Structures are given as C-alpha cells and as structure tokens.
C-alpha cells in the first residue's frame, strides 16, 4: 500500500472518488513512476510494454506497481479468461479549454460536437469519447455491457468549473449501449441516466443510450438547400401535411410494425408529393419513452427515434424529401420534459435542468417538468438542440410546441400556484428571452429555415422580428381561425345565419401575424371525432360540408396545414396505435375528397393570387361579408400583376343563383367547384365559366350572375 494512500484507494474501490484521474493511470511520484489501475473483475493484472510487470493487488480489484516506460497496455486475468486492453487513464483529455469556457458561459452553439458520445481516434486509439454536464455530481461514470455496468470501472474526469465530465474509452464502437452512473450531490447513487446529448437509443421500453456516428449519410440536396428560402417565404405557397410516422401506415404482415425511415422515404413522400403538399411536418421524432405521448414527452432531444431506424436513415428520409421538392418540419418540444428516472429529472441529484420550486417547474396538465430557461447552460442545451436538427439533419423548420405554456408563469395555474416574475407580472421573462434567442440563432445560422409557434393566446409580436421587440418566429398557428371555423361548420346550416361572424371575424386580425391555418392532430383525437364526423347532415351533406370547409381553408389568407387521414375524410378519429383506414379510398366519396385536396394544392401553388397575400393585407378583400341570411361569403384574393381569384361560398343546403361583384368585365373561368363529380359532388355548376357585365354590384364596377350549388365553394379567375 506504500505507493498509494489507503483512503484514496478505498474511495476508488467504493466508487466515491471525485478525481479518479489524479490517482489512476501512470503518474510520477517522489518514489518513482507508478501505475494504478482499477479492474474489479480481475484477479491478476500486468502492465505490458517492452517489458512486462505484474502489478500488486492492494485492494480487491485495485492494482498498483512501479513502471518506467512511457507507454503500456494492461493484461488482466481471472479464473475464466485473460484479456488485454488500453488503459483510458493514461490518455489525455479531449475537450479543449475553449470548449470548456463556452460550455461554462452557456454560449456553445454547437454543443453536440463536444458533449455526448463521439466515435473518434484519440492519441492513436480508436474508441468513443463521452462527455456530460453534471456540475453537482460527486462522481460520474460511463456504464454499459463493455464494463458489466460497473460504475467503478470508468469513472470520468471533471473539467473544472464547467461542470462537464469526460472520458475516452478505447475499443468501443457504434452500437455499444451505455448510461451514466452518477453519485449525486448528497452522496447518493442515482438511477442510471440516459445521455442528454445522446445521438441514439435502445428501442423502448429499454432506456439506454446507444453510440451512434453522425455524418454517415452522403447528402444530395444541394439544389433544394440553395433555393429553400424562396419556397418558405411569406409570399410563397406553403401547404403542410402533418403526420405521425408511427400510425400513418403499418406492416400488418409483420406484427403491425410501423414503417422504417427508408420505407417512409418512398411510400409517405411519394404520397405527399402526389397530393401536392409543399411540406411534411412530423410529430416529434425525438426519442421518447412512452408511445402514448406521440413524442411530446421526449427524453433524447438529440436522437431521432429508433422506432423507424438509425440516424443515417432519418437523414436519408430528409434528403429524399428534398429531392422531391418537399420541405421537412419537425415538431420540437422545449416546453417540458417527462419525469422518467432515466431522463433529466434531478440529473445530478439536484434540480439541474428543471426548477426546484414546482410552482415554476411542474406542469400538472401533463405531469411533466419545465426547463429552467433562466439557467444559461440549460438555455444553451436547448438552443444548440434547435441548431442541431437544422444543421445536422438539414431540417427546414421547427414547429415549437406549447409556446403559450412557456410564455406565462400562470399557465393552467390558479391564484397562489405560480411565482410572479421580477416585476410582479405573469410573463415568463426567461422563456421569452430563450425563444428570441432560438429564433435569432436559427435564422442567423441556418438561412432559409422557418420556425412556427403553436401559440394560442394574443401575446403580441410572435412573428415580429426580435430587433423590433417580437419573438422572432416566422409563422404562428392561427388557433382563433381554427376554433371559429370548426365551430361554424359543425353547426346545422339552419343555425349558421346567427353565427355568420365566426367566418368573418378572423379577417379583423388575419394580418396581425404571419399565420398558418391548422387542422392538426389535436382536432381529431381524445373524443373530438374526425373531421367528417364533425360535419352535420346526411352522409352526402357531411361530405359536401367538408369539401366546402377545405376549399374555404385553402382560399382564406394563411398557409395551410392538414393532418393525415383528413385528406380522404377518415371516419374514425385518429388512433396513434393503429393506422389510417386506407380501405376507404375504394369508396368514391372518400377518393373524391382526396382528389379535391390534390386540386386545392395544385391551384394554390399555381395561382399567385391564392398564396402571395397569405401574410400581406394587399392580397385579400371582402366583396360580400354581411349576407348572414343566406350564409353567403364572397371575397377576392390578389397578387401584384397577377389575375385575381374570386371565391364564393354558399354554406346552406339550398342551391342559389345570385349576382356577385367582380373587378373586370369578360369571361371568368371556374377554376374550382367543390360540387364537381370528380370530388364526389353532383356536378352542379356554371359550365366552366361566367361572364361579367358592366353592372356595378357589391361596390365593384362589374358583376355576373353565378350559380352556387348547395354547401359549396366556387372559385373564378379572369380568363
């Protein structure tokens, strides 16, 4: 025991030494060079170089001896085997001082390049470098199959005041599973933790992280990346197909498994491209332990879920989308995280990522925790994560979930159950600053991307630039439009005359933000029924109502979003454990609905008047907004130097012939009629055109008599 202090030796063997690198490995001492190695499953141990020296076992599993060469390997032996390995404790640190400084400062915007598990060559050895932030831990170890999940084997090196622990383990390879074993601030061993910056994970319900290499996919989307800024501009057509990858389609012949990223690259993307959508939006595919959360309670924010394949396969999916001209938006969840023991909760034995006070740090609605946005390292963790998806996986946008819950400290809380901000108000100033920083970084470092806020309050300036005092999002979901329009179309048409303003009110604030009109998954789950199920009347009237609804949505200012299955009027509400009812497409009415959505997307893309003014008030004007008695709506969409489009909606089950005001004389072509037989309607219409006369009407110089089928929307443009 003369070469090593007994108390140091006991601390190492018991796994409570806070600085194992100061003892383990090769060190120069007053008594000469010594090697100390901790190999708990070895009975004998040798240092092997030009010579070979057996080390003395000073405590069970702890060996020590003199050594005079600069390099060595270790050879261990027990009753079952003899094995050679590199000693990680003789290798120098990987992280540099700049990385350490930026992490401590909370400004390391490429955090994923230094934390997590990275396959690399270090000092001539191929292996994996592990680094994790746990500032209040007394000891952190990497555990896995490679060390029998023994936390004494690979105790990590603490990097000063940054709170980061690191170790390089030679010989480890991609596919190895691991966790962090942490001796907490109070000296208690915590449940083993998944890597907060892990790039992969085991398939749930297993919870370990998995070593994965990044940059394995050879990208071929340069053309898309160079032009995507134009395709996502506020004046461009943006039509989004929202999808839950696990329940879009399943392989029933193989126990009902979901499709892989490779299968989705062909089946889903071909389908979305055929329907004419410009983007696909994915419900969260960040790794999550509970299927029933649909991804909205993530644990692995840096890992695409293994449910559909490996990281490089997800990259191939995004690349395939880009090569079809489709953008990919990720539903991103920085608003909360689950309480699972292997996750971020009390990560180092303290409320590290979350608030200590449940009045600030716990969502009772979801039984989840809230990030402490005011802690610079936590904000940095999330800001870097946004950039990770945009840069590493070439994603075109982030839809930020539950923004309202982040903006307000009293969100879903009663009086006395929340903590005011420093000014005594209800706004979460730290979260507001965080969102501004995310948008500033995202748009600054990933040109051409979009960020989208799911924000259901009247918080001002959500889509205003940060330098003008806004939050800096590119778009915001128009929840007011969605609620009013769904409420209106769900009514029996006989009552609609009394609620006429539910379709006109949105025009009073349509241009207060850059809006997306969402019919999302939230509207067709938890007993809310399907879109077709919400419609009143007979079966035929339900379809006519829904066709009119979609046409009104596509004609109304704002970008478009439709959740999967609604394009063909699925009867059942969404079931995340099943798949869409594809057999319905054999029925003419359902196939007709899909034909309508395809044509709406085509007309929307090809007609500047229908998309240029989605976020510009010069692109919309009412022609008739007050005919509540007949539930009639007429409005015009326009774009500079382009032909206008006039939209007329008859939302009663009574056919009508009426006169509408128009902007010019001559022939106007009927470019869409929801009562077309191609869409499952009765083929009632205007024989393809109307003719405008010099008869002033509805404050317009010209007008035309038109036929309006019952429960229908028609669109006209000058021929």
TrEMBL record:
Family matches, as InterPro entries: A-amylase/branching_C (IPR006048), Branching_enzy (IPR037439), GH (IPR017853), GH13_cat_dom (IPR006047), GlgB (IPR006407), GlgB_N (IPR054169), GlgB_N_E_set_prok (IPR044143), Glyco_hydro_13_N (IPR004193)
Molecular-function GO term, any one: hydrolase activity, hydrolyzing O-glycosyl compounds
SUPFAM superfamilies reported in the protein's UniProt record: (Trans)glycosidases, E set domains, Glycosyl hydrolase domain
Pathway as given in its UniProt record: Glycan biosynthesis; glycogen biosynthesis
Single GO cellular component term: cytosol
Signal peptide: none
Pfam families cross-referenced by the UniProt entry: Alpha-amylase, Alpha-amylase_C, CBM_48, GlgB_N
Keyword Transport: no
EC number: 2.4.1.18
Catalytic residues as annotated in Swiss-Prot or TrEMBL: 401 (nucleophile), 454 (proton donor)
Keyword 4Fe-4S annotated: no
One annotated GO biological process: glycogen biosynthetic process
Record keywords: Carbohydrate metabolism, Glycogen biosynthesis, Glycogen metabolism, Glycosyltransferase, Transferase
Ranges of residues in domain Glycosyl hydrolase family 13 catalytic: 242-598
Catalyzed reaction equations: Transfers a segment of a (1->4)-alpha-D-glucan chain to a primary hydroxy group in a similar glucan chain
Family: Belongs to the glycosyl hydrolase 13 family. GlgB subfamily.
Assembly description: Monomer.
Biological role: Catalyzes the formation of the alpha-1,6-glucosidic linkages in glycogen by scission of a 1,4-alpha-linked oligosaccharide from growing alpha-1,4-glucan chains and the subsequent attachment of the oligosaccharide to the alpha-1,6 position.
Protein name: 1,4-alpha-glucan branching enzyme GlgB
Organism of derivation: Paenirhodobacter huangdaonensis
Annotated gene: glgB
């Amino acid at each position: 025991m003369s070469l090593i202090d007994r108390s140091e030796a006991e601390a190492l063997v018991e796994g409570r030494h806070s600085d194992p690198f100061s003892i383990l490995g090769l060190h120069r001492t007053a008594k000469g060079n010594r090697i100390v190695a901790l190999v708990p499953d070895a009975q004998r141990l040798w240092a092997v170089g030009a010579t070979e020296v057996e080390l003395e076992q000073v405590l069970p599993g702890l060996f020590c001896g003199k050594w005079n060469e600069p390099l060595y390997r270790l050879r261990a032996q027990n009753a079952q085997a003899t094995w050679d390995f590199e000693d990680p404790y003789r290798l120098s640190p990987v992280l540099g001082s700049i990385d350490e400084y930026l992490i401590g400062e909370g400004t390391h915007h490429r955090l994923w390049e230094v934390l997590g598990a990275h396959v690399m060559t270090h000092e001539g050895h191929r292996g994996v470098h592990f680094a994790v932030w746990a500032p209040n831990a007394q000891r952190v170890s990497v555990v896995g199959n490679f060390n029998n999940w023994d936390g004494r084997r690979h105790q990590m090196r603490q990097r000063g005041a940054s709170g980061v622990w690191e170790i390089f383990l030679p010989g480890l390879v991609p596919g190895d599973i691991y966790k962090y074993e942490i001796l907490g601030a109070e000296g208690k061993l915590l449940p083993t933790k998944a890597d907060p910056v892990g790039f992969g994970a085991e398939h749930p319900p297993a919870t370990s992280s998995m070593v994965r290499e990044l940059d394995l996919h050879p990208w071929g989307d340069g053309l898309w990346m160079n032009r995507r800024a134009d395709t996502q501009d506020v004046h461009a057509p943006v039509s989004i197909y929202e999808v839950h990858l696990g329940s879009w389609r399943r392989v029933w012949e193989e126990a009902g498994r979901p499709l892989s990223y490779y299968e989705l690259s062909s089946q889903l993307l071909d389908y979305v491209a055929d329907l004419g959508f410009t983007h696909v939006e994915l419900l969260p595919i960040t790794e999550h332990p509970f299927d029933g959360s649909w991804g909205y309670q993530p644990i692995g924010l840096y890992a695409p879920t293994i449910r559909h394949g490996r990281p490089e396969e997800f990259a191939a999916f995004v690349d395939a989308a880009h090569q079809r001209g489709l953008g990919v938006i990720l539903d991103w969840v920085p608003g909360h995280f689950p309480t699972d023991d292997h996750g971020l909760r009390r990560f180092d034995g303290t409320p590290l990522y979350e608030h200590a006070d449940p009045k600030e740090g716990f969502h009772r609605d979801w039984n989840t925790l809230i990030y402490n946005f005011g802690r610079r390292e936590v904000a940095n963790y999330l800001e870097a994560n946004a950039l990770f998806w945009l840069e590493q996986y070439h994603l075109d946008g982030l839809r930020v979930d539950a923004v309202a819950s982040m903006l307000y400290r009293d969100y879903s809380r009663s009086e006395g159950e929340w903590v005011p901000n420093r000014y005594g108000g209800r706004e979460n100033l730290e979260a507001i600053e965080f969102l501004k920083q995310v948008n500033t970084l995202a748009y600054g470092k990933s040109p051409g991307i979009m960020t989208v806020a799911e924000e259901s309050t009247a918080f001002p300036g959500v889509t205003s630039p940060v330098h003008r005092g806004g939050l800096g999002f590119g778009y915001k979901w128009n929840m007011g439009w969605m609620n009013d329009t769904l409420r209106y179309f769900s009514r029996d048409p006989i009552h609609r005359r009394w609620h006429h303003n539910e379709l006109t009110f949105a025009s009073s604030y349509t241009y207060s933000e850059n809006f997306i009109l969402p019919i999302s998954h939230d509207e067709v789950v938890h007993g809310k029924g399907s879109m077709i199920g919400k419609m009143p009347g007979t079966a035929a009237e339900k379809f006519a109502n829904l066709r009119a609804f979609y046409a009104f949505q596509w004609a109304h200012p704002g970008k478009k979003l439709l959740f999967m299955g609604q394009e063909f009027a699925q009867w059942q509400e969404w079931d995340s454990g099943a798949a869409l009812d594809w057999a319905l497409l054999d029925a003419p009415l359902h196939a007709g609905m899909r034909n309508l959505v395809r044509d709406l997307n085509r007309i929307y893309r090809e007609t500047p008047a229908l998309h240029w003014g989605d976020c510009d008030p010069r692109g919309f004007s009412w022609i008739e907004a007050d005919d509540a008695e007949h539930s009639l709506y007429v409005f015009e969409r326009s774009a500079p130097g382009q032909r206008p489009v006039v939209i007329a909606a008859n939302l009663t089950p009574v056919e009508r012939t009426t006169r509408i005001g128009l902007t010019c004389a001559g022939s106007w072509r009927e470019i869409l009629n929801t009562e077309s037989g191609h869409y499952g309607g009765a083929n009632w219409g205007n024989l393809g055109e109307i003719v405008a006369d010099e008869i002033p009407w509805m404050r317009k110089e010209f007008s035309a008599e038109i036929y309006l089928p019952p429960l229908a929307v028609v669109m006209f443009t000058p021929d």
